[in-house]
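anyone seen this seq b4? input:
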Amino acid sequence: MAEQGASFSVGQVAGFAGVTVRTLHYYDREGLLSPSERSAAGYRMYTDRDLARLQQILFYRELGFPIEEIRSILADPRATALSHLKERHRQLNEQIATLQKLVEVAEQAIEVERTGVRLSPEERFDIFGEVRWDLSYATDAQLKWADSPRQRESMERAARHSKADWQQLMAESTEWRRELIVAFEDGQPADGERAMDLAEQHRAHVERWFTPCPPEAHRLIAADYLTDPRAFAMLVPPSEQLPGLARFLHAAIEANARRTMEG
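predicted toks r here
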């Protein structure tokens, strides 16, 4: 235990606090914690007050506060840290919720691997062709729709599909995609009968293979085609994409949803 009024070298403080000398030098450079005294030999020394400040810094660092925010908290001794701590508490709770959802995604992925169809790389290419299931998008989508019963049902049904199921599903998708591109290149209006019928076929395809897909749910799916290239790439591989095609499909799905709900 250090004696009251003693001073300590950077090496001693590193040992007390369980940090590296480099970390203490970094705090010094950043103006967050500088030794208050010098020894007779000219070495910079930390006082008891410095150690108390270091304890505060390490407390806030443990909670994930950035250096700039710690500097702001410590700059005014009269200011209270309560508002900062409340905000960090909120952020940590959000992170915990996100991590919990990621745990659920991992558990579901493990279950798919346990119960899903086993495909060799050659079989995957034979079935899916250029379409690639982007894991990062699938994870983001699961986090986004984690509380949706439709999302859970979709994943469960996908896990039960056999190789033959996937072959039939992808054959239907390939034919539909060909017709979509032809309609787009022909200059068909997105709110015309042909485009809306293709949108309806897509909605029925989702229902047949994955989950009930009423018009409002279909519109939510289509919104991702405009905002996330990964979503559209799972429907139309990059080699087949044309400028404006994603917007065309989105508009057709919107028009078909209006037609369905008004009808």
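Residues 82-115 form the longest helix (34 residues). The chain has 13 helices and two strands. kinda curious what u guys think
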